[in-house]
């Protein structure tokens, strides 16, 4: 069986972020033959084009982890109708220098968790536009956890809501299917999970 490795990118900097909790829940909800490893952006500096040819060690490691993954699962909060600046900077670092980006062709999915009644549709739309511009195949489904994340996770981050569990499981399964479809399109031999 071909093992699918997904890199989960935590778009929030808050230690108790519901987006981090959602990615941790996703690690336990993967289908057979799939793993998710998380990457935190704390050490990634803000992107500066003048330094793109001399990236710091944290950026080099980030690029290495993206290249090694079969797919990317982003979990992002919404900041002023867009993705947080730190996440955008990480994406920019891994897209440069020109012609050496590591995103092109990498299947991706986006999910978001938010408190209150509003979801993070604008941030998801913004991120999907960025990913499309980077020529990344994207899972075509809304990635929101329908607001009120504080009702879906316990204070220590455990997922306690069955509908959210089903949503995350389905999103990860669709991402894995997208990877298998990409492999098949490129002529890789893919063994179906029994």
Topology record:
Elements: E1 4-10, H1 18-28, E2 34-40, H2 57-68, E3 71-75, H3 85-95, E4 108-111, H4 121-133, H5 162-185
Parallel strand pairs: 1-2, 1-3, 3-4
- CATH third-level topology: Rossmann fold
Integer average pLDDT: 90
Helicity, as a percent range: 25-40%
- Give the N-to-C terminal Cα separation: 9 Å
Q: Give the second-level CATH assignment, the architecture.
A: 3-Layer(aba) Sandwich
* Beta-strand residue percentage: 5-15%
Helix/strand-derived category reads alpha/beta
Q: List segments where confidence is low: pLDDT < 50 over at least 5 consecutive residues.
A: 190-194
| CATH class assignment | Alpha Beta
State the fourth-level CATH superfamily: Flavodoxin domain
How many DSSP H or I helices?
A: 5
Radius of gyration: 16 Å
In N-to-C order, the SSE pattern is EHEHEHEHH
| Number of domains as seen in the coordinates | 1
Biggest sheet architecture: 4 strands, parallel
- Strand arrangement, major sheet: 2-1-3-4
Explain this structure to me?
- The structure is a single chain.
- The protein has a single domain, classed as Flavodoxin domain (Rossmann fold, 3-Layer(aba) Sandwich), CATH 3.40.50.360.
- Helices cover 37% and strands 12% of the residues.
- The chain is built from 5 helices and 4 strands; from the N terminus they run E-H-E-H-E-H-E-H-H.
- The protein has helices at 18-28, 57-68, 85-95, 121-133, 162-185, and strands at residues 4-10, 34-40, 71-75, 108-111.
- It has a 4-stranded parallel beta sheet with strand order 2-1-3-4, with helices on both faces.
């Amino acid at each position: 069986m071909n093992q699918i490795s997904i890199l989960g990118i935590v778009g929030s900097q808050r230690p108790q972020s519901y987006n981090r909790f959602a990615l941790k829940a996703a690690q336990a909800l993967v289908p057979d033959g799939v793993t998710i490893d998380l990457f935190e952006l704390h050490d990634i500096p803000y992107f500066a084009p003048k330094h793109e040819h001399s990236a710091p060690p944290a950026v080099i490691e980030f690029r290495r982890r993206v290249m090694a993954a079969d797919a990317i699962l982003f979990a992002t909060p919404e900041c002023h109708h867009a993705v947080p600046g730190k996440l955008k900077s990480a994406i920019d670092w891994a897209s440069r220098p020109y012609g050496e980006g590591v995103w092109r062709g990498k299947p991706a999915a986006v999910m978001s968790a938010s408190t209150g009644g509003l979801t993070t549709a604008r941030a998801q739309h913004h991120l999907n536009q960025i990913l499309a511009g980077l020529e990344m195949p994207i899972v075509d489904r809304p990635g929101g956890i329908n607001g009120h994340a504080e009702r879906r996770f316990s204070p220590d981050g455990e997922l306690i809501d069955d509908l959210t569990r089903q949503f995350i499981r389905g999103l990860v399964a669709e991402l894995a299917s997208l990877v298998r479809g990409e492999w098949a399109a490129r002529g890789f031999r893919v063994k179906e999970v029994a």
